[in-house]
Amino acid sequence: MAGRKKAIVILSAAVLAVAVAVIVLLAVGKPHTPETVSREEFLLIYENEVRPQVLMLSQDPGGDWYTEPYEETTLGGYAQELTVKALKGYKARQQLFRSHGLWDFTYEAFLDQWQNQKDDGNPYGVQAYGLYDYYVYLHSAYSLQLMHSYDPDSAALKEYYEQHKDEFRDTDVWQLQIWQTGSQQDAQKTLEQAARNGSADGVTFTEVTLDADAAKYYPEILALVGDGLEQLKTPGQRIYREADGASFLIQSESFAEGRPIPYEECEEVVRSRCKQQMLDQAVAQALENINVQQQELPAVGK
User: Fold this and answer.
1) CATH of 171-256, one of 3.30.70, 1.20.120, 3.10.50, 1.10.10
2) Residue 35: how many CA atoms within 13 Å on its side-chain side?
3) What is the pLDDT of residues 207-240, one digit of tens each?
């Protein structure tokens, strides 16, 4: 009888130990299993994404080049950290590609695929890519394929629209009149006279429209106006500027505030951005479980 009680106690202790182990595992979460990274893949990312930066920094070894969280790190350690960080991003995507049945990545298979593309003379120009370019190309292509596999429902789309309403509006439009003369004594007075009378000696006049494409077509005007755009929302309002040896009087002729775009008119744009957000969230979640081990790198500057 005593033997049975002893056996029961031992069994109970074993069950308790297993239960405690399970509770601890659930508490700490799934252990981070290191991702398999060949030395060739590690060096591919280092050589193309990290080495140019650390080479530049190595030219100023006494410089204050580091930032949080690398202030106590050597330049070689900094290179390690950057390489691991970049690889974690790729590995997170590879994990997602694998789980969705898109691409079961191995570096060896990737090399074979790259070689086959070169040998076959791919009509889309892939054969012209270098090894790193092809690596990036495939990750981008599969990311796009994965993004398009998401299918947000109507409720998710409308929620995204409501949360990002400021992104879905027509562009604001300014019609501006600009008088310009050389940097001279009484330049502002001369410009104001030209604005009143329609012209003045030595003053040139132009009209421009600033909208969402202003940075592309009128970068110099946008830079000149600067924070004065808010002031120029009021028709007739003027601002005075000096730049590059010239003086400018800028007057608002009109301003039209962009209207909100109804959901029905931008549903497809909302869908595309919502899918991108779903992809970004999936990658961020995958990153939490990615662990890439550091590998030895060539000496910085070599």
Assistant:
1) 3.10.50
2) 26
3) 999 998 888 899 999 999 999 999 999 999 999 9
